[in-house]
Structures are given as structure tokens and as C-alpha cells.
């Protein structure tokens, strides 16, 4: 595996890029091969690198290389000792990407309709099947790919740093190759027994309730939106009766009118809850919508769907249809979604989409407890709408000896006041993963992000 200077605008200046060929189906080594795209930031110290830190991105569908710039800064404390290595998972980024168009690019309303439009899903499958076996793009295959990279790098052991759905791949790697792991840090853990997206509605509701309570306890927020819960309930009722019309300014400066639905409202607010510095906008956005102005919400919804459309959509379906959705029964949906902001739209659309997508096979021990494991640290946001602390608590049960910390007021992402503390915890754990105690005292200083009660023009 040879590396060369990347020489691309999105990569740090010192980054090296390379590729490694792996079989699409390991059981057929003479069959179709995939070129894994790899970016490396060498350790900056004068001594040989202690080892390699492998970053595993979420989604599923995100590319690892997109994290190189921020990780080179946030993990600067490790750069003197460790190489940072970013492997785009198969089907994403530059690793045989399974990209396709779910939406009609020339129609803004297409992005603001169903999250998984059936016509787009079927078109995506037709486009990809001639060049990919869509049953071979799961976390188990991705774990085998990482082991091939570790071997090619010549690193006796690696450290795994995984986020969101990338934690699935990390757990699969730990299950198969724990002896090759120095330590693993899993941020926002998605355990293999979690059947996404079924829990999203209740977990979103819990996160929203926490922010509503915080607003009620905040003098300025409570004065600006004294009935935030009632306002949200009223908006849901209004949108349940019929979508509203909202102006939308497109990136080229042109303005159009779009329909804004109840399902879109739930999805948009859930997206805001992911990031604490966006969740603080919810009271102001709700107030504007109650006054009849849905334009700010429509803009955020459009931007969010465009971001989703830039990921590896095929990889998303191949992984979630195989690992999650098949376990969800239609009769499970009402009890899991009734009376929630998110409702049943997301889960029913994903159930429908997966009926039109090939499902792969899973190892018989896919969600069983690990018999042994390298040291693992789980990091979870207290108000995470996707992977809240209850999932980390359950994950500890299948990861022998795992440690778990909860970051106050954080969502799926972190607020500014938590960043330094969490990086300190992560790097300290990576340096001494076998230490009996973890110093979490800095978490007591973490603060809630302040509400932003007015919107930018």
C-alpha cells in the first residue's frame, strides 16, 4: 500500500493518500474487488509512531476522509505519538461509492417530500446493482476491510475512534479482531441489537422534552416562548390537517414556494436536536411558525435533505436494511411512535424502502455479547435524540469491562463548553486504557448552550 501527497483542497496539507484493493465478497477472492480510499496523517513526533488511530464515520454513508481536518485539530494531543488514519468505508467517499439520486435535483419540493421516496429508492437500486452486490456493504464487511488495512499498514495494534453508526463497525471489529485493538472510543453508540429507526420517535421526544424544560427554567427563553410545548402541539395539529405553503430561497438566490408537512416538521426539529448549538434555535423557530412564518424551518429542512443526499445512499440502505429494519414489525410501529413529534412517517418509509432493497446475511453472533474485548470507552450526550444514554447502558452489557460517560446537555454532537473536556477524556483513555479510574471531573464544568431567541435575517 503506497501513499502519496493528497494534493486536494479538502485534506490537511500534510495528508497522504493511498488505496488498498479488497474483495467485495471475501468468499470469492477472485471476484470483483474494491479500492478502499485511505488518508493518513503521520505522527508529528521524532520517534516512530506508537500506532495508528483509525476513524470510523457514521451515517451510515459518511466518508471518513471528511473528518481529517477537524480530527487533526481536536486530537492534536495524540498527533505526536500516533498516526491518524481515515478509511472511507466500502460504498462511501472514494471507496467504490454507492452514490445515487434519491431526489429530483431540479425540483426543490422533491427534497421536502418523503425522506425515502420510493421511486428514488427503486431508481437507486437499478443504477447500482449492475456494478455492486448490494448485500456486501455492511458493518461486518467493513470490519474485515479495516483489518486488511491494519495488516497492510504493518501496525501490530490499532486504536478505534468511532462515531454514531460507525460504532457498529467498531463493535464488529472488536468481536472479530479484539487482539489487534489497543483501545476503542465509541461516541454515540449504536449497539448491534438496536433496530433503527424504530426507537427514534421516543428518543427524540425525550431530548425535546429536556430542551423544553430547560427553556421553561431559563428566564429569557420562558418570557419569549412561555408555552413552548403547547405551541409545538398546536403546530403538529395544524400540519396534521394540511401542509402549509412556505417560501424557500434557493442557493442561486431564486425564491420558490414549497409545501411544508407535519412529517417534515418532525424530521427538521429532530435534526436540530442533534447539535446543541442548533437545538437552541427551536424556541425562536417555533415562535415564527406559530406566527405563520415557516420560511426558516423550510430553509433548514432543505439544507438538511441536501446534506443527506450527498452521502452514500446505497450504503445507507444496504447497511440499515440488513442490520436493522428487518427486525421491525408493522405492529411495533404504533406503540413506538404514537403521540410523538416525529410520528410514524420515518419508520414506515424506511420499512417500505427496505422491501425494495436486497438484504444481506448477518453472522449468527452479530448482536451477542462479546466473549472478550479490548478496553472500550463509551461517550454519550445526555440529550441525544438518536443514541441517548440508555443505549450506552445496554451496550455495556455486551462489551466486557467497558467504561461509559455521559456528557451533560450534549446531543449527538457536542457543545463548545464540552469539547475540550471530552477530548481530554478520550485522549487520556487512549494513552492509558487499562487505568482503573477515569478522571471525569471536567464534566462538572460543562454548560448548556445558551438559547438563541432571535433568528438571523
UniProtKB/TrEMBL annotation:
Q: Which top-level group of life is the source organism from?
A: Bacteria
Signal sequence range = none
The portions of this protein that span the membrane are none
Q: Give residue ranges for domain Peptidase S33 tripeptidyl aminopeptidase-like C-terminal.
A: 347-442
Q: Which UniProt keywords apply?
A: Hydrolase
**What would be an example GO MF term here?**
hydrolase activity
Does this UniProt record's set of keywords contain Lipoprotein?
A: no
Chain ranges of the AB hydrolase-1 domain: 52-197
The UniProt entry's sequence similarity note says: Belongs to the peptidase S33 family.
PANTHER family for this protein: 2-SUCCINYL-6-HYDROXY-2,4-CYCLOHEXADIENE-1-CARBOXYLATE SYNTHASE, AB HYDROLASE-1 DOMAIN-CONTAINING PROTEIN-RELATED
Q: What is this protein called?
A: Alpha/beta hydrolase
**What organism is listed for this UniProt entry?**
Hyalangium rubrum
